[in-house]
Amino acid sequence: MLRRGDDNDDNDDDGDEARRNGMPGASICVQYNFSQTVPASLGVPMHIRLSSASDNALVTVHGERDVLAWSLRRNVAPQRIEIDIAMDYVTGIAISPHGSGVIALAFRLGTRYEVWTYDWVNRTGEAVAAPGTDLHSIQYSPDGRLLAWISGGGVDIWETILNTHVRTLRESIKRTNGLPTTRFAFTPDSCRIATADWSGRLTAWTVGSWSYIGESKPKRAWDEDGREVVQLVACKGRVIVVSCEVGEPQTWRLTTWWPDNGGRAWFEMKGCAYGCVPCDGRFVATVQLDGGKLRIRDSNSGVCLDQSTQGIAKVDCHREDDNVAVGGHQIEPSATDEPGATSERTSE
Predict the structure, then answer these.
(1) Given CB 3.0 to 4.6 Å as the disulfide criterion, which of 93, 106, 145, 291 pairs with 135?
(2) What domains can you pick out in the chain, each with its CATH number?
């Protein structure tokens, strides 16, 4: 359960403004209420390779093609989903916003890639999309009207009711240096879509008209430093990216871009082994290297919010060389408040 103030748009704007100024936003309350493991009796690998969540359910992919369904309303063991479709390897999974009984699957069968929507309650395939190349990262728009996935370095978008192709977002070589898309996301109102390529360049588009809104790029390409995009979230007025740089130890970073004015800011999450952000972008959850502890951080400031680590976040807060160090986590105030400006510190 998550609360930020009165949870209204004014608070969102205040939080974004605080982030631009390098200051903490409004406080967030977090409550942990779900804990389950994969039952050994299912004979399914413990490692979760892919996942997708709705308001009341979670589906996970284990091994090559095993799929489990978890209830987020009741703290009960997961059940195995029997999929009566010939496939070798699942490359993407998504739960339909219209009902957790329907999932979309991207998979490989031999050298062929396909996308199916599947009613796992009635064990029936609902639709088959045209095949493509290297299909992965499938997801529904929040309103359920569109289904999209990455194929051949671009984003293919389909209309779900008529099962027809709508658009392929494949940016020009002049704009993106020809690098393929690695992540994308819809905004919660399904009005925009954002993408990230291997270089760390971010773009935003308007859904429906498919007009181009803008782009932002780091001063140094991420792929040159071995930095990879792990997750991209598009929320009200901003795009948030979780990325990691391969090395010992790995360095994890949270980058925020405001498409409407071009501002871009980031902070590092030191001691982090993994990080992810919910669809509303209110916080970032990290798994720590020191014993696997779970921490909840404010996505505006990087401050730890869970009680067990709040004391750490209050220690050694100081400003140094225009950066703010909060509990050892580096925060860079955005220096790009002017519309159209884009910059990111080149220490990455």
Answers:
(1) 106
(2) 48-170 (2.130.10.10), 175-348 (2.130.10.10)
